[in-house]
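re the bet — no i am not wrong, look at it urself. input seq straight from the record:
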Amino acid sequence: MADHTTAIFAAELILLLFFGRLIGELMTRIGQPAIFGQLLAGVILGPSVFGLLLPDLRAIVFPDTPALKSMIDAVSQIGILLLLLLTGMETNLALVNRKRRAVISTSLLGIAIPFACGVALAYLLPVELIPSPASRLVTALFLGTALSISSVKIVAMVLMEVGAIRRDLGQLILATAILDDTLAWVIIAVISGIAAHGAVSLADVGSSLALTAIFIAASLTVGRRLVARIILWCNDNLTIEMPVISAILVITLSMALMTELIGVHTALGAFIAGMLIGQSPILTEHIEGELRGFIIAFFSPVFFAVAGLGMDLRTLFDPTLALFTLAIIVVASVGKFLGALVGGKLGGLTGLESLALATGLNARGSTEVIIASIGLSMGALSNQLYTMIVAMAVVTTMIMPPTLRWAMARVPLREDESKRLDKEDAEQNQIVPKMERALVLADDSPNGKWTTAVAGLFAGRQRVLTTVLQPAKKDAADEEKPSVKDRLAEAMRTALDRGPPPSVKAAASDDAVAVRVPVEELLQVREPAPEGGIEKEAAKGYSIAFVGLDQPITPDAPRFEERLQRLVASFDGPVAILVNGGRTPVSTGPLDILVPTGGSPDARLATEIALAVSAASHGKLTALHVFDPSEDTLLLRGRARRLGMSVLVDVHRLGKRGGVPVRGLTATNTHPEREIRRAALRGRYDLVVLGTSLRHGDAKFLSSRSLGLIKSIRSPVLLVAR
């Protein structure tokens, strides 16, 4: 019997996955969300189609037995938690904060009006649609919630589809949907507490609200740091496959359990867990992609197909029930539209902007399906009412894309919005804005002190998590000296306190002001193990490594010092090596930096790093481009010179966006290093940043040309090599 049950369970999963993904693919090809296909797969496999055409066969594949129901329900419930995890990970609280006036007014009114209408409508429903007449209030609260919440996943997907996700108004729509979703799970948590006690008690409601508030407050403060440390520790210390994903799943289930224990629904715990995990400093696109693929490929189609199984479209054949379904759709659409429209106007938006905002929030989709599924499982919703709510979610979401496209086309692009979009387009091709972690290997030499200054300015400016490899102090004299960590922390603190350059501050809007991050949250110290410590640390997923050693390069050969050699051999990213640090006093004040540009990826990366350090120090940058005279004069006057000048123009644009004054220099020479040397000697720069590629043999090493150039420059040189 057990084997028979397992076989049927496997057959159910096969059907749900196959038809869910297949019909989901068809839906995406006609411009609709894939979840509609997954819902439709469940409807087809449910009583409406499969059960109507082949009732005996469906009874075999989907038998009404408690064991199979509990098995498929368990997968579906885990699917709810993981989908909420993804939703939470996509929640951008900074975006909500930046748009807070319009977001709060739109979200509150956009929820309050349809919620009140939904509650009122529930009291007009015939008694046969209410699972328990004595608990009509709980049913009314669930219906009001389902009619009032926008689905952040569907809103985000539609905004991307219509090309509005990067518009100011698109971000405002998304931010409001995020707040909607956040409030939804708090409301559901409270309603679940009311349902659990069976009656409305002010003491019970107050207790649920108080415990929910304490849970959220603790999660967003202590919990945020704890989650970040757990993920970081698992990534850096565990050698098993995919340790971060395992940690994420444990955190999600643990927080879901916590909310269950305090008497509110597990949905809130999973959603808050996603919010905290999404703010982790090392949640790389690779890790997030693996987790998303795992959920989208299995749990999402199973959950939504199971949700479709619970729908019986024959319910809608009854004229009375069809009218109530239409009433639910009208109340949900009109109530949400009016609430968001009024909220937008109160938030300071124009009429056209408020119209587009109200249109964009009128999509329900996945959130309503999850809310309806929770209500059905708790007995707060009947099968008929569940079908009506899901039908409302489908209809409102299908209407939203064409109406939003029409409304967005009538909202003009503002000047500051146009500038922001240009900046984002430029950053798409940059490497530095995507960096998440930095590794610092330094000693107490002049090179080490310069490295901690430069690395600290860079890390403070970019707000990247930074690890410093610091050897243990040997004696009392060492104890009295500032450690590498102390010097690095001071430079980071300087960059954080200094903030953006004055030219950026003057033109900054609320969107441009970065949130202050304590140095303690960005800096950690590691003592490298005697054997293989550097190699093991370098393999933990760093974006860049800064190195400041007394003699990083051997004086008689283009080879690296032993520790640096081990680092470059095991590290795939760029390594920024400081040389000539003893020739100039260390400074974190305004730095005058020279960077040669050549259009190569190495030179481009060096330019980005130089701009970041210059912006952090409130300094200035000189960009040097050397033309090659081996090409004939006609060509130099044509395409080649235009390309060279375009590189300098690009650097100037990047500098302007970052608030860095950029001066362009040009020269013509078959040996670019000679012009670089000449410019460095004439300008007396505080720092020269050079980009280069390492040569590969039995070990990685510098070219003789790069080595000769470094030795001839008197200023400190930051060599960006990869």
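see?? The two ends are 62 Å apart (CA to CA). told u. also The domain at 432-721 is CATH 3.40.50.12370 (Rossmann fold). so pay up
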